Each structure stands twice: as structure tokens, then as C-alpha cells.
Predict the 3D structure of the following.
Amino acid sequence: MSKLLSFFVASTLYIFFCFSASAEKVTLKFHTFVPAPANSNKLFVLPWSEKIKKESNGEIVTEMYYSMQLGGKPPQLVDQVREGVVDLVWTVAGYTPGRFPRLEAFELPFLPTKSVITSQAAQEYVETIGAEDLKDYKILTVHVHSPGMIHTKNKLIKSMSDFKGLKMRGPTRVITGMLKSLGATPVGMPVPKVAPSLSKGVIDGMVVPWEIMPSFKLQELTKAHTNVTGNRGIYTTPFLFIMNKAKYESLSPAQKKVIDNNSGLSLAKHAGKLWDSFEIPAKKLAVKAGGKFHTLQGEPLAAMKAVGKKVTEDWVNKTNKKGLDGQKLLDQAKSLISKYEKQF
């Protein structure tokens, strides 16, 4: 037997015995606010869990609970996983305003580009300058959606003046602040509440990416859609795919290695590619539903960007008052996006 073959056999047996020695199956309880058919579940978390199971020789299995089946409201997911009520969650960082002050930089207007680029930037950010925000969790990955757009029931937004009198849903404190500055009446709410709120007239529209719309049939409730020109979108939202820290620490070394091999920057890049790919088919459904479309450019876009700049300046000042260096956090977020943009 050659030395190379002997090494391969020995390595394979070592890995086998590492898992065999632990013997005990580990069940990870996963909880999220979106329904089972949502892209984040069907095409991201579920394949991830299947890969984990395979690479651990069946030792690590995941129980999936969707649409807040285990109780609570979407903002409570970060506490549920921190306290060990569940082991894994996928959620929106901005649903708990103020909890992740450093990561808020990625919610600022006209900051994001493609998800594959911005997601890698966000992941490196939380591993470095923003690490304090997520120190209580095992980070599987932080990623973002493709830049979100403006959607209303029937009023096509062609200038800032068109926002006047509209009640607009925003996903996070930063973005609801921007909507207010644009002249709308902002309404903060998790995305599962958007469809019933549109139907009942609680809101007139919302900002979301295309990809989430089919999960809640929002393309049937909004018929006017506005985007912007250029290589920076209106906004994005950081998503957290995180694990209870104590649960992770309780795993065997071999099991931890499986989790680690499927976490971090590579997972952020994978998520980014997925979320970018979700946009086109979702938009086609809006076209099929008879939607009207507009792209902001020129003076109307410049006016909106001026508002975005003021929102960003206010965020820096408020962040400074919390004892953080807001400008440094913002500059690092921009720098990391530029870094991965050059690699794209």
C-alpha cells in the first residue's frame, strides 16, 4: 500500500471514529418568522441542514419550525436563540432596534450593491469591527438581500413629492426614518404583517426586495414599482443566521468542525449569490400581475440621495452619542463593500 493511500485510509478512519465515538445524535431546533416555502427556508437553511447532516454522518439533524410555530413574535427570535429556547434562527437584525448598533451601518441608504458583494462585506464586518454586536451568539453567517425597492398599491413613485400622504412600511428603524424624511408616514413592521396591512389599508406600500414578494403574494397587492439607477441600491437589510453559543460549545470537536466548515465568509458568499438569483423570477411575477414600473434617475434621484445623505449623517451623530465611532463604522462598511466589489 502506498504512503498516500495509507494516509487517506487512516484519515478516513479517524474521521469515522471521531463521529462514531460521540455516538449521540444532536438535534438542532430551528425557528424563523417566514413560511416554509420562502426562499430562505427552501433554498438556504434546509439545504444547509441537509449538508450538515450528511457531513456529520447523520449525527447532526435539524428540526424546522416556520412562521413562529414555537411562539413569540419575530423580534423575539434573537432572544430565543441566545437563551437556548431554540438552537438556530434566521431573522432580520433590524427587527430589534438598537440591539445591533454597529451592524446598522449596512441598513443606511444608498450603501448596498449586489447581495453577493454586500453579504461578504457584512460577514467580514461582524468578524472584525462589528464583532461586539454578536458576541453572545455563534455566527453561522450574516448576509443581506439584493437592494430593496419601492412598491405601492397603485401610485408610481417618480419624485419625492409622490411620497406625500402615503403610509409606507419600513423594515428597520433606519429605513423608516428615511421614509419619513422623504415625506411618507412610516410604519415599522415585520414582513409577515405587510400583506394584511395592505389589504386593510393600514399601509399604502412598502420597501422590500423582489425576492420576498412571492412568499406573501405581495405582487398581487402592489401594482406600482420603483427602483433607482446606478450601482448602489436604495437600501438593504442584514439577515442573521445564528446559533446558540452554549449548544455549539456542547458539540464534539468533529461536530464543531462540520459547523465551522459550513459557516462564515463562504456561507455569506453562497447566500449572496442565492439572493441575487431570486430577484429575476420574482420580478417576472410582478410583470405577469400587471405591474407598472419606473426607474428613478437624474434630478429626482439626486433629491432622494440628498435625503439619504442627511439620514446617514444623523445616524453617525446618534451612533457617536452611544459611545461608538459612527463615522469609522460607516467608512469600514463602505470600504469592505468596495473590497468585495473589486473581487467580483
Residues 265-288 form the longest helix (24 residues).
